[in-house]
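Changelog-adjacent note: as of this version, every example in the card shows the full chain rather than a window. The one below runs 202 residues end to end.
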Amino acid sequence: MVCEGEVTEDDYFKSFPYYGKLGAASDRGYHYSCGAVYIESGAGQHERVVSKAHKVWVELKKKYGTISPNEVWCVFDCDGDSDGLNRAIQAARAKKFNAIYSVQCFELWFLLHFQMVTGAINKTEYDKKLSEYLGICYTHGTRGMYELLKERQDFAIRTARRLWEQKEQMGELQGDPITNVFLLAEALNSAYEELRNRQSNT
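Full-length structure tokens:
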């Protein structure tokens, strides 16, 4: 998994049980269980994320053998550059990588833990609304969001999927607001459950 952001996405995804509970950390940031999980943050914007993901994929294939392109996840935001986002999505798909994106920011995924969002709102409004819901002073880069939100994750997945389906029907899969982070959340949860079941049967 290669993320555009240096803090928000990195901290959030590294808090999932699949990353933190099943393995042991090495000095390079790998966590081992029955399969390796690698998360790299701060890759730069848009197409740079895809380029970095390809580099990491090649390196890990050399080290561990076959790794399918569909096991590679590129995570980025719009950041006010819809053309750049579109190029990055197309670049990821061309390599058969998963393109995970939010328009306009990752905080949309956080807010969907509490409410449906159907219209564009200012980025500062995300901070304000999250602060109200969580009872904290939320700012971009606030750590510990997985723990704060995990009890509402099922609601977020359902809400984000409903938003995605609505946008898909409208032909606006890159229109503000939209996110498919729910796909990655489901994949991480599913991988964790599979490994737990495998371990309990050995």
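Structural remarks: Strands lie at 2-3, 31-32, 36-37, 73-77, 98-103, 178-179.
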